Task: structure prediction
Amino acid sequence: MNTIVVGTQWGDEGKGKVIDILSEKADFIVRYQGGNNAGHTVVVDGKEYIFHLIPSGILHKGKVCCIGNGVVVDPQVLLQEIKGLEKAGIRIDGRLKISSLAHVILPYHKILDQLRETKRAHKIGTTGRGIGPSYADKTIRCGIRMADLLNRRVLREKLKDNLREKNEIFKKVYAHPGFDFSRIYEEYLDYGRALSRYISNCALLLNRAVALKKDILFEGAQGTFLDIDFGTYPFVTSSSATAGGACIGTGVSPVLMDKVIGVAKAYTTRVGEGPFPTEFLPPFAEMMRDRGNEFGATTGRPRRCGWFDSVMARYAVLINGIKELAIMKMDVLDGLKKIEICVAYKYKGKKFREFPDDWEVLTRAKPVYKSVPGWEKAPGRSQGFARLHPNAKSYLRRLEDLLGAKISMVSVGSSRAETIII
Ligand code: IMP
Result:
């Protein structure tokens, strides 16, 4: 079975936990896009693990974890993550594979990401990790790939060529002194040496696994509305975070995919700038942020919070071909008297039931809400769907009806045990 897990909102939906649970039954777990702008927090036996690049499935013994060609890799961050896992006693040798075609994040990408933000009138609020500039180099065909770190001659030529042009731009446009070739060259050759045993042809490996009827889990990072095409452009990331990205980012054909699971929070959050129709107003916003501990796993930035937006989520179900949903952080809604669900947008007297492409509508529309009654703090959270408060159950049923997909998992706390499988 080949399953894709995608975020249906603006990332941070709790995909890490879903992947962690589904990993038990998978043989391979594969990241297909994004980079260390992502951050998954997984809690196992009271111990917290934060992942930026390596699939969280690595916590399960015997599973093979791949970083696909669609990912952009900061080798320094990856090596730190590897060291952290080894220190925690988790063996990764033979279980971690990095696509030789994955593009590399270089120092100039990170600096450019930050400098560009300072120049913009409308800041995107990027994570500043060099993600956008690295994908830009990939697209304009001057990127450096993992395989290049293993070949002195190729790396020298590519890096020289890049710096010749980029240093001019850094000096003339950003009044930045630019970058020294030798330092980057030696540093990245070192990374290549340290990572060489993990770098391989992942497309080949995965397709062979498919032929052997192995189970593969494709792990999306960010979410549908941060997707470069379908997200709230330009306030998006630079990769294909939707289900289609799983094929491009791994080399496994669309005809081999079996299922897409969409992950949504029981409410909505967003980090960074950009439209957010159902965003809470203060002081409720702060209260909900604290309850949900809504601070970015990567940058620690406070997340913006709002009500569940079914217009967005239904569009995500459509774009990704989602049949199954995992609803996360239900417990954060415990104890609220009344809960709102956005069912449409209203702008200039017109109702929009579908997610609008028109920027003016998206940024100015007011949400149309349906109120549903809240519930007391749920007793015996981990004891199954039947034991949920009736109002919590009807909230979930309402989401199923609005989104046109079945809920197969509900998370009511951060640990693996606090998960209801339906
Ligand atoms: P970038 O991916 O660093 O270029 O950032 C672009 C936008 O995507 C910013 O609004 C970031 O806050 C957002 N973003 C990137 N990665 C994540 C993520 O993993 N979770 C939530 N937001 C993200």
